[in-house]
Amino acid sequence: MKLFGAHLSPYFERVWLQLHLKGQTDAVDYPGVPGNALRSPEHLAHNPIGRIPYLELAEGEFLPEAQVIVEHFERLFPEPALRPADPPHAARVDLICRVLDLYVLPDMILVARLASQPDPDRAALGDKLRSIQSGIGYLEHFFAAQDWAVGDEPTLADCALIPFLFFAGLIQKSGGMDILADAPKLGAYRALIADSDLARTGFDNMARSLDQVRAAEAKARGQG
């Protein structure tokens, strides 16, 4: 199997962290993004949706969408289970992932890029910030972390939240905006898991990927 994408994508990193927890990262190859661009013909030939990650199955079929891939790996590698057996806890895991996917992450990626620019479009930045603050408010409302996001063991919810926290830190560092300032439960969760192996691994992966992207952009500007 081949998992296409890059660690800087919070969706790719969600899947990779799941494989990490299951001890299955070596079961999959990671060829990056075909053509090194999301709109490259090579990439779109595999996945016309144009997003990452997507998985090439052993049979040569392509499976897009991070949460679909996550569910596939839960069935393929059932141990350790990262969805709780308890139905209410399992539903909370699903809810966290769903709220992130629908109401937070799409605009959060754009905010991180805008905030890192020397002279960002303040109007566009403000619009996107208001959007993700609403989504973070939804997440905060339903959030009730214990040792981890749901219960006392890491779950798929943590695999989704850690990339979100990386982008929250990136926005704070580059733009001076603490988007969790009005989300005390999420802020407490961030402090609780920050030194865990799972969080450190995810943050390190994404930071290295960000450095690679910035180096490639700098090289392209130099050639322009």
Automatic annotation (TrEMBL):
GO terms for cellular component: cytoplasm
Pfam families named in the record: GST_C_2, GST_N_3
Cited InterPro entries: Glutathione-S-Trfase_C-like, Glutathione-S-Trfase_C_sf, Glutathione_S-Trfase, Glutathione_S-Trfase_N, GST_Omega/HSP26, Thioredoxin-like_sf
Domain GST N-terminal span(s) in chain numbering: 1-81
Coiled coil: none
Positions of the GST C-terminal domain: 86-210
Gene Ontology MF term list: transferase activity
Gene3D superfamilies documented for this protein: 1.20.1050.10, Glutaredoxin (3.40.30.10)
Sorted UniProt keywords: Transferase
PANTHER family reported for this sequence: GLUTATHIONE S-TRANSFERASE OMEGA (PTHR43968:SF6), PTHR43968
Protein name: Glutathione S-transferase
